[in-house]
UniProtKB/TrEMBL annotation:
PANTHER family: GOLGI APPARATUS MEMBRANE PROTEIN TVP38-RELATED (PTHR12677), OS07G0655900 PROTEIN (PTHR12677:SF24)
Alphabetically ordered keywords of this record: Cell membrane, Membrane, Transmembrane, Transmembrane helix
Domain VTT: 8-121
Parts of the chain that traverse the membrane: 20-40, 99-119
Location(s) in or outside the cell: Cell membrane
InterPro entries found in the cross-reference section: TMEM64 (IPR015414), VTT_dom (IPR032816)
GO cellular component, as recorded: plasma membrane
Main localization category: membrane
Membrane topology listed for this record: Multi-pass membrane protein
Species of the source: Citrus sinensis (Sweet orange)
Coiled coil regions in record: none
Pfam family, one: VTT_dom
Name of the protein in question: VTT domain-containing protein
Amino acid sequence: MWYLESSFQLGGGYLFGLPVGFVADSIGATIGAGAAFLLGRTIGKPFVISKLKDYPQFRSVALAIQRSGFKIVLLLRLVPLLPFNMLNYLLSVTPVPLLEYMLASWIGMMPITLALVYVGTTLKDLSDVTHGWNEFSKTRWVSLFSLILSQVY
């Protein structure tokens, strides 16, 4: 479901511009990651652990996180090997402390957040140039409708 996260970030840039969109999306993504982490650590823990029984490699990841959790979480966020939503739940069953997880996730998600918000800002600028600065163009309506539709499906 990476496209849902991406569409929120694109939409943030489109609607609010680079500075405000980046700050809002960065805070929102970090809060969302923390909420999923806590959900996986509490209510969803038996389910997540049952899914990981077939993957003995995950034990070595958990051991590495026990030694240097912040660095591993940061690297996993910088190199998106897994979708962020899945990563939230997988990391919830590791011994990484919540505050380390949140800080590493926030820093690690910044580059992709900045890039996607910038693309959203550029799309708005293109729409403004091609359809006038003050009118709400058909392109903008289509973009907003697509953003909303992508969240529903």
